[in-house]
Amino acid sequence: MKTILITGGAGFIGSNFIYYMVEQHPDYKLINLDALTYAGNLENLKDVPDSANYTFIKGDIRDRELVDRIFNEYDITNVINFAAESHVDRSIEEPEIFLTTNIIGTQVLLDAAKKHWKVKPDDKYDREYKNDVKFFQVSTDEVYGDLGPTGLFTEETNLAPNSPYSASKTSADLLVRAYHVTYGMPMNITRCSNNYGSYQFPEKLIPLMLNNCINEKPLPVYGDGMQIRDWLHVYDHCSAIDTVLHEGRDGEVYNIGGNNEIANIEIVKLIINALGKSEDLITYVKDRPGHDRRYAIDNTKITTELGWKPSYTFEEGIRETINWYLENQTWMQNIVSGDYMKYYTDMYSKT
Length: 351
Ligand code: NAD
Ligand code: TYD
Prior knowledge:
This protein is an alpha/beta fold. Helix content is about 40%, strand content about 15%. It has a domain at about 5-200 and about 235-260 and about 295-310: NAD(P)-binding Rossmann-like Domain (Rossmann fold), CATH 3.40.50. It is globular, with a radius of gyration of 20 Å.
């Protein structure tokens, strides 16, 4: 039986992953450690059934004492580290918190895992770990940097991050790798392309454009809008993580993507058309500094070695996502009005 420490489980992908796991593995215990930064929202998790083997702990992955206590108390068998500062534009404004959360936070988790999982934690030459433990780092294709007009990212592509966000995620990947090589830490790293789906914070392209479009506000397209991302439905990211958690070979990196390259401007126009609005809403704005032009994933390793494949086409996924945002406008309004901040402050003033 697994007891999984899911960090960042109140964010976009983490909350989708918790729903996924409750359904797929109802016997697993899930401990969600989340600091509830601006991006964490307990409303995302309100439909997790009471009966689920699920515990929420408000706290910071950089808090060594707390992380250590969680390992002791719950006998953690796996860490799946989603917790991160995740937005490139914010990293350009304020890089430091990206370094402390994404790098130091990962190292704190690795240290706790090493202490609790090593059979002889004080013997640096001993590499034996308890059975079935694994550290899982949720990383991003952005660690590979800018692809140029042709080619695909493989797991062997050089790491060449261009933003403070991607540099911090790359550093975390290298630390996880170093703990594997030096201390024998059982681990996998996954590098996924851009996700879309329900509960994504409206600072990211698709929910931002949806929200603005619904409210007939200008749609800010960076530069010429011809930057390309390889979009994957969040459910398919979750199923890929599940696959690697159970089947991934120790120490391996797996890229995750659905062969779905689309230019930003095409997505913006698709949203406008789906909502029956005018393309006059499109407003070209100054480009993001250091903006990567193109990302695209070669998913051969995970599809051939582990048999994973995405279940959504982009057409199905984006239709479902647009409907979700239309049906959940209160969720969006609570975030953009700042009410959700009040929600979780109120909630914790009671505990
Ligand atoms: P998100 O910003 O929506 O959620 C991040 C979560 O982490 C939030 O709930 C936040 O409260 C929590 N958090 C932040 N700092 C913390 C800290 N110090 N301690 C504890 N919790 C903290 O991000 P997301 O889009 O769900 O991304 C999750 C992970 O997946 C990230 O590691 C990101 O790099 C990676 N990823 C994201 C995408 C994507 O398209 N969104 C693609 C590939 C990989
Ligand atoms: P984003 O969702 O921030 O993801 P990432 O930068 O991690 O890929 O942005 C996706 C693409 O959309 C990226 O090329 C930047 C662009 N973009 C805009 O053109 N306008 C916007 O307002 C935002 C948020 C993003």
